[in-house]
């Protein structure tokens, strides 16, 4: 493949994204990354020898940011701009509108794009966007269903490239469950979630009340910021309140989850490819996911986890009780979950598919 000059504009760069950039750089792509100086893994990028420009975009129309992006376009003879968030897309689009530069957008969540929303036409529905990389097939399919009268979203514009992971990133020891007073022989279910209505947390709390009837020692660990008055009141009134533990926000959420027997995301809509579930799977923690967004794409039902109906406390309780009563089955699923991430959601594949996308766009001229 000929040398490709790619400008990346991002605002965070988590580990999968960071190693995607490193993999592309190591494959010979001339990569220039624009990101905030507060990016959590910036040292990895610096150590890899990737060219960086520090920039935080503060709004959808960021004049200073656009000047910096334009300078990079002018100085580096860029072939492709690959943007990873809404602000990056909306600020970059006007700069390449009359240019032969190819523009790739990234979409990590299902929904919130509409032909009736003017902002959508300034982002993902803009015909100047060449490709949209979707984090899951569910996100891609959402785009492909968009239509109005005779107009349909271009069929081949949205594609799926899963965010890849590597088991070597997750070698730190688990945080002991005793930190929260959870007995060693209890069946512990972990849930990494920051409270939002679409995350379905009330259904999970209601499920614990149903589990109280099962005569099993089951505890729930809620990892993240839970500050809604209704949710906190529901927990306080639960028959199982002594078995529900709130950790608050944790920088080591994956290590906290590693001490659990199962992990769950009770989302009711608009999921992408949930990192919180992946972080359980890499630690051999059996996942329970709902039929929403890309969650079912992570799990082979009955093999590497359980897939249940969304918005059902009964379905949640039944899944948890099933795993708690069958420890051998649960352990087997946990092993299969880790193997699935290693096999089907790895960073090597992500880099290979991204390179293929770059090649395709440049071959199109």
Brief overview, please?
This protein is α/β, with parallel strands linked by helices. It is built from 14 helices and 15 strands.
Number of helices: 14
Query: What fold name stands as the CATH topology of the largest domain?
Result: Rossmann fold
Overall structural class, as computed from helix and strand content, comes to: alpha/beta
Arrangement of strands in the largest sheet: 3-2-1-4-5-6-9
What overall form do the CA principal axes indicate?
elongated
Mean pLDDT: 94
- What's the helical proportion of residues? 25-40%
CATH class of the largest domain: Alpha Beta
Series of secondary-structure elements, N-terminal to C-terminal: EHEHEHEHEHEHEEEEHEHEHEHEHEHHH
Distance between the termini: 15 Å
Unreliable residue stretches:
none
Description:
The chain has 365 residues and is α/β, with parallel strands linked by helices. It has two domains: 5-164 and 346-364, Glycogen Phosphorylase B (Rossmann fold), CATH 3.40.50; 167-344, Rossmann fold, CATH 3.40.50.2000. Helix content is 38%, strand content 18%. It is built from 14 helices and 15 strands. It has helices at residues 15-26, 42-47, 63-76, 86-96, 118-121, 137-144, 201-211, 229-237, 253-257, 275-281, 295-298, 313-325, 327-344, 347-364, and strands at 5-9, 30-35, 51-54, 80-83, 102-107, 131-134, 147-148, 151-152, 158-160, 187-192, 218-223, 244-248, 262-265, 286-290, 306-308. The protein has a seven-stranded parallel sheet, sandwiched between helices. Strands 12-11-10-13-14-15 form a six-stranded parallel sheet, sandwiched between helices. The two termini are 15 Å apart.
